[in-house]
Design the sequence.
């Protein structure tokens, strides 16, 4: 008598988790250390966030006390919440760990997509050259050259938007770029 639960194939989530674990195990040691460090920074940030939020805050100067933190600057030009945030370490750890991890993920995904694109573009051009050689199609190489000029202009614009994302939207651009480099690098 067999148990149907034991013979059931693994779920997609379990299969994806297994594949992801295998990919991480296949990484070089320096990448493993960097990924573990970024995950540890994120975990430490969340732990500190819990610890720092449970500590009693001194009442802020003003009518509402500690609960009166708003978007309106105080008389000295600062935000009421900014004074409390200066002593908290949780955002620092979360910022650094998250930035590296996102950069690494973007780099790994970009490397995979680029490999696929290069294969398909190569097969497409080989097919075009073969069809032109046998006389089935006529290739206008000058027109292709013009289109490639516009293509590289568009790629430059897209690269600029990625740069803006890494420098403007992510909290730590340096660690995000380092993560992107680590994700793009093969070994």
Sequence:
């Amino acid at each position: 008598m067999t148990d149907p639960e034991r013979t059931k194939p693994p779920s997609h989530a379990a299969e994806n988790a297994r594949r992801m674990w295998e990919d991480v195990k296949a990484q070089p040691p320096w990448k493993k250390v960097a990924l573990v460090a970024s995950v540890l920074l994120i975990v430490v940030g969340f732990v500190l966030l819990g610890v720092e939020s449970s500590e009693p805050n001194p009442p802020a100067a003003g009518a509402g006390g500690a609960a009166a933190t708003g978007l309106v600057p105080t008389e000295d030009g600062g935000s009421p919440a900014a004074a409390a945030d200066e002593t908290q370490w949780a955002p620092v750890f979360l910022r650094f760990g998250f930035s590296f991890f996102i950069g690494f993920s973007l780099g790994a995904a970009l490397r995979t997509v680029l490999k696929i694109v290069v294969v398909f573009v190569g097969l497409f051009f080989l097919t075009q050259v073969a069809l032109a050689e046998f006389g089935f199609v006529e290739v206008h190489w000058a027109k292709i050259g013009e289109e490639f000029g516009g293509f590289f202009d568009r790629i430059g614009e897209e690269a600029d938007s990625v740069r803006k994302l890494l420098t403007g939207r992510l909290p730590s651009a340096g660690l995000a770029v380092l993560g992107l480099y680590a994700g793009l690098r093969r070994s």
Observations:
- The longest helix spans residues 90-133.
